[in-house]
């Protein structure tokens, strides 16, 4: 059976490269990345790579994808300009969806974030606004044409090996593995729906398989476990499964961020209706993250 082609933006990113590893078993993967020469996670020859700076209509004409998964994102943590955030978080997915409709792709999956809920962190306001605007445009375009179904996932707090070292969980994992003397933290009572990255991948794979059953042109839904834990419990569990008895987690040494989201929990109603549930417990996911982090 001839494999169908799937586009993944941000294929060399945290979620993107985990998707590649799984979905390359059943699809020909074309990874859309900013640069094909500065890869951190993918190995040469693993998939076909195209730059998002190429004329994307030519890329679509060449490969005719059955689906697109948009994982690429810019947070603005490193001083990126607002136009650069809009380029990746709004302009790129909107352009890809329009091309998906033109070239008769069946499904477009967008990966959003729970950070867009509530008032939002002050330091991520540009990012949150761009993701909100992306969803608004995807809904509008999908409903106007109704030729390529859109699943717009509000993803909760993924974790696992291979995430950026600038991310909070990666920083803590590194500090725990190196047996840092102490880590100063907030009181840690904010609750999050932590989901192991392999469960995120299984949810997206199921969405690809079930996309033909979607009735509406645009569906916005949560991607998470449906359970939440305090950050304090998450970090204490991480330390416990690591066997590290030396590092002191100094809760309460730092203040909460302004507009801190104190509780976030997914309602994965669409995924649940398809029979999906997470395969990894928090302990299992944390242990695998520790084992696979260099």
TrEMBL record:
Family (UniProt): Belongs to the NAD(P)-dependent epimerase/dehydratase family.
Source species: Algibacter agarivorans
Highest rank taxon of the organism: Bacteria
Domain NAD-dependent epimerase/dehydratase: start-end pairs: 7-212
Protein name, entry field: NAD-dependent epimerase/dehydratase
